[in-house]
Each structure stands twice: as structure tokens, then as C-alpha cells.
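User: Could you check the structure of this?
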Amino acid sequence: MTGLRKRVTVGFLSIVCLLFFSGMISLLELGHLSRDTGEILKANARNIELAKEMLDAAHEQNVALIRLSVFGDRSGDSLCRVCMDRLENTLLVAQNEALDKSFLDSLAFATTELRLATDNYLAFGDLRSSDSLAAAQTPQRPDSLGIKWYNEEYDALYGRLTAAIKNYMTSTQSSLAPRAEQMKKNAYRAVTPVLISVAVMIAIVLMLYYFMSIYCVSPVVRMNKSLGDWLSFRTPFNVKGDLKDEVLELKERIETLINQSKQPKA
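Assistant: Sure, the predicted C-alpha cells are below.
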């Protein structure tokens, strides 16, 4: 393969290769972008799930402790322990899965405070005065000492715990910011090869058009006009220009045919 055909083939193969490699790079970057997006959404959903589990456990423990401390319902004793265990286990899972454990320090401290207060009340709550105990054992009759303990001690601890859980829900979002920024860069990297390939492809197409026009189209047009003039008016066949490869061979063969036609027949 030589000459004009080689130039045209090389030009179009260059475009095909450029499109292929830019497409592969874009697909690779889009794969990274898709994977990062999935991981961020999965981590966000997991954080919300753990926070909801902790809030539910804290709420159920709070309800059970109200029944125990205010109304003297001893059935809430075991439920308090179960809910505290559930809260601590969920917190442990969150600590194991967290990339940045600093967001969980305040939550762990609030959980420990609530655990100590709950255990102390469950252990020493029966040492109340006999009058208060008798009142607490009366169905639906509030226990004044239990109400005082709940309002003065437990309620503040419970408020700090729920605030820490909500802060955990919002604070973990800030840890996603670097990954979101990386996703933004990956998106630009996925689009950039396509833009570059399009620009280069346009340049190659314009170059092909220029060379085809200079070395192929224009010479053929001039040869066609000169040959038509020779056939119509017998003007000399004279094509000027820098002709190369097959176009030059075509001009020479036309001149050979014209010269042969001028020779007298034997």
C-alpha cells in the first residue's frame, strides 16, 4: 500500500485509534466514578441505619425507665438493660465501621454516662424510703423520688445522648466531602479525554480535507478541465501543480495517450 491510499488509510486509522483509546479511558474513569458514588451512598445509608437503631434503642430505654422510675413498673427493669445493651452494641458496630472515629467520641461518652446512671438506679433504686416505695407500688401512682431523679439526673443525660446521636448523623457527612471532591475530579477526568479526542479528531479531519483537496481533488479537477479543453478545442493538455503518487501517474498516462493519439496511424 503506497501513495494516496496509504495517506488516507493512515488518517482514518488514526481517528479510529484515537476514538478507541479515548473511549476506553472514559469508560475506566466512569467505572471509578460509579464505584465511588455507590460506596458513598452505601456509607451514608449505613450511617443513617446505625443512627436510627441507636435512637430507637435510646427511646425504648427511656420509656422503660420512665415506667420503672416514675410508676414503679418493675417489668421495665429487664427492658432497660436490653435496650442499653442494644445501644452499646450498635455503637460498637459504628466504631468498627467508621473511618474517622473522632465523630463518635462524644457519643461514646454520653452512652457511658447513661449506662452508669441506669445501672446505679437499677442497683440502688430499691433503697428508697418505704413510703415512696409503697406509693410506687400503687398502680398508676407516681413516685416522687423517681420523678425527681428522672428530671434532675436522667433527663439531662438522655438529652445529651440523643443530641450526640443526631450530631453523629450530621458529622459523618463531612467525612464524605473529600470523597465527593474526588468524584468531581473523576468526572472531569472522564470527560476530558473525550473532549481532547474530539478536538484532535476535528484537527485530523481538517488536515485530511486539506491534503485531499490539495493532492487529489484539485489536480483531478484541473486534469478534467484540461482534458476537456483538449477534446473540444485541441488546446494543449497542460496541468500545472505539485502532483504526487497516483495523481502524477494518472497525468502522465493521459499525456501518453494524447501523444499516442497525435501520431499518424500506420
